[in-house]
Design goal:
Radius of gyration of chain A: 24 Å
CATH class of the largest domain in chain A: Alpha Beta
Helix content of chain C: 55-70%
CATH architecture of chain C: Orthogonal Bundle
CATH class of chain C: Mainly Alpha
CATH architecture of the largest domain in chain A: 3-Layer(aba) Sandwich
Shape of chain A: elongated
Oligomer: heterotrimer
Order of helices and strands of chain A: EEEHEEEHHHEHEHEEHHEHEEEEEE
CATH superfamily of the largest domain in chain A: P-loop containing nucleotide triphosphate hydrolases
Largest interface: B-C, 100 and 107 residues
Largest sheet of chain C: none
Largest sheet of chain A: 6 strands, mixed
Order of helices and strands of chain C: HHHHHHHHHHHHHH
CATH topology of the largest domain in chain A: Rossmann fold
Strand content of chain A: 25-35%
Chains: A alpha+beta, B mainly alpha, C mainly alpha
Structural class of chain A: alpha+beta
Number of helices of chain A: 9
CATH topology of chain C: MetI-like fold
Helix content of chain A: 25-40%
CATH superfamily of chain C: MetI-like
Number of helices of chain C: 14
Number of domains of chain A: 2
Number of strands of chain C: 0
Number of strands of chain A: 17
Chain lengths: 347, 294, 282
Amino acid sequence: MASIDISAVKKIYAGNVTAIHNLDLTIPDGELVVLVGPSGCGKSTLLRMIAGLETITEGTVSIDEQVVNKKEPAERDIAMVFQNYALYPHMSVRGNLEYGLKNRGTPRDEIDRRVAEAARILEIEPFLDRRPRQLSGGQRQRVAMGRAIVRKPKAFLFDEPLSNLDAKLRGQMRIEIKRLQRSLKTTSVYVTHDQLEAMTLADRLVVMNAGRIEQVGAPIELYERPATLFVAGFIGSPPMNLIEVDYLRGRGDDLKLPEGTDLCGVRPDTIQVADPGEPSVRLDATIELYEPIGGESHLHLRLEGSGQLIVAAVPARTAVVEGATIPLFVRIADLHPFNRDSGRRTD
Amino acid sequence: MQTKRTIFPNKVLPYLLLVPQLAVTLVFFIWPALQAVKSSFEREDPFGFKTTFVWFENYRRLFADPNYLGSLSKTAVFATSVTVLAMSVSLLLAVAVSRVLRTSRLYTTLLVWPYAVAPVVVGVLWWFMFNPTIGIAPYILRGFGVDWNHRVDGVDAMLLVVMAASWKQISYNFLFFVAGLQSIPQSLIEAAAIDGAGPFKRFWTIVFPLLSPTTFFLLIININYAMFDTFGIIDATTQGGPAQATNVLVYKVYSDGFLGLNIGSSSAQSVILMIVVIALTAVQFRYVERRVQY
Amino acid sequence: MIENRPILAVLTHLVLILGVVIVVFPVYLAFVASTHGGGDFLRGLVPLLPGPNLFANYEFMLTEGLTTAGAPPLWIMLLNSLIIALVIATGKIFISILSAYAIVFFKFPFRMLAFWVIFITLMLPVEVRIMPTFKVVADLGLLNSYAGLTIPLIASATATFLFRQFFLTVPDELMEAARVDGAGPMKFFRDILLPLSRTNIAALFVILFIYGWVQYLWPLLVTTDSRYYTIVMGIKRLAATADAEPQWHLVMTAVMLAMLPPVLVVILMQRLFVKGLVETEK
């Protein structure tokens, strides 16, 4: 059990490529923090610097209030779950679980006890004597988790652990990881590029872009108040629509927006087909495509005048026809004001 | 050059790991090669007391020596013949094996073992078969009115070493052609069959062009083999004779150096051979790069 | 096969059978010769069917040999060949796997230089640097010794390349997982990399064993003491005297014995042999 402190960390690769710019982040004891961002944003590099698999160019990483910059991965007392599981193919499942403990000189009876416990928790007892290649993807994933659990480390590091699984299994394993982490209360850092996975797993979400942190917070906070245009576009599906303030002015009620606002974010699910009877803007748009997806329907719309394409998420059985031009309403309270040049929220 | 994404941080260990290989390489490869280069520019007096630096004199003499020029052309004839013969026979066999289903493993086993026969043993086998006194081949040839005697006839001698050297190389080429044929997608051949191409047309228009990376690779390997790995075959059959008829470069280096004791000339010949190997290796590596784009 | 063409099928088998005959016939002749007595070669043509002297010839050659040719009994030569082939194969694998490990899993100054020094051995077959290499071995006092017979042949760029190629295909995460699990470089090498390389090592061993066994020129140069004769070089000495004083049956007995071990290795380990051959050349 430990907190992880990342202080003024920089990573510069050979050839002067900066992967991480002066990054600060504190991961409190027992929390599950998810690093999310597009590929190449530096999230994996950051995780690997915490693990000790990547050198730290500047700044410090501390685990449990000890600077670990110079420590070997094994000395940091962390466990890692890799994207391709990285199970030792020539060892049995039991051998895989035991290897790290053996290397640390754990007594035999303690090893047996821990392996039995991990196998019970993860329900992999029947496979203990099999080789990894005899297991299914989901089972391998459990073994990889088991290898982390038996160590009882200060922190778990997850590097996109679910991306090799099919969608259904991914959903199941996501729940299991969350449940496991809740019961073990081990500090965890989880890297993913899947925003849905990030939202559902995280106690706290860290959105990264181009080697910098865009925003840190509880998942719902980030959804409701994205601090930057990047976060606004990255979190939420379908993504937030961004409409020019100049276009919105004069369409509906009076707009009172903070100084410097020139772009407004509109979540697809805040677009309504009926006048809400509150201060709102009215948009007229032609329905290009009506996309029923079950619980709701997505309308792909072309705005009158500007020709911009936007997406609205409306109740499933909204009575509209493709090709029709209809009025749409967005409450002024639901607008997210941004400044285009700074990329930041203005309120 | 490629390494792993993460590497071990040890500073001294990698050098320790490299020491055995580098030591052997430096002592038995690099150092002798440098010595060869050095003595190729020197001449020893007949008693071995004094060596003098003579610039390119050894090379100049070499290229003025009809024996050496003869050896060059013999080597060209030998290498070309072995390459063409060994490759065409093994391609034929590989294509045949790829057409049979149940018996292909049996045929493969029966065809690949000559790889393990030492070149000098190959030489002895063929020398026995073609022995002018008791050999079966000259006996049969006499029935056709051919008087075989590779001890006096240079053409016979060349034919003998070409046949023996090709015989040994068939198994190697065969395995690579089989592997090359297996890597051609069956769907292409089926598509060609649907397009109305018969088996022979399919071979020349689809299979053979797609096999060209393997063919090119084997071409280099076979030239290399014929030039450098056939010492034992020559030594056991003709020993370069008769009258230099089969005295290829690699045999001449040996006979001039160890039997003729002409160090300067032998060294110059060594250096020329090294240049040939370097050229062949360079061509081979360009091919490897090109194959990546395939 | 796509279409059913009986004539082509027959032709295919004819080609293959002819190929097998060409490949087998010289060895068949040698085998037949090794089963006859010395007198059977005086009629002017080699016998074409096996004779009755099989066991007598092999026993004679193995235990006594042609002492007139200055050669020891064949069992000594076979033993020497076996020792040399095993030492060369083991030695090559040992030094190559270590150097490939260093080159792939570490970064250090002069890494490229080391790679090139190893690479250059590809370009220097023993035949082309024969004189100076002989001189080095003579100066080191290694003539007529197992060390002199083996060590100069042990450096191998191909084996290093094969291991390098294989190591590059080992997922990065495996090494990272091992490091997180507390394995240092040598522990990772022993516990993870070596077990994973098993098939490659075995395949390479087959190829290198054959390489060591068929060596001819080098043993010919560095051994004058018959106690160190290998079977392959010994045969040449036997054959040389046989021409003058025909003892064909005994020479061919020696030929059969020289061929048998590596040929058996190829036939019995065909899968490993093919893998080793096709992969070392890539």
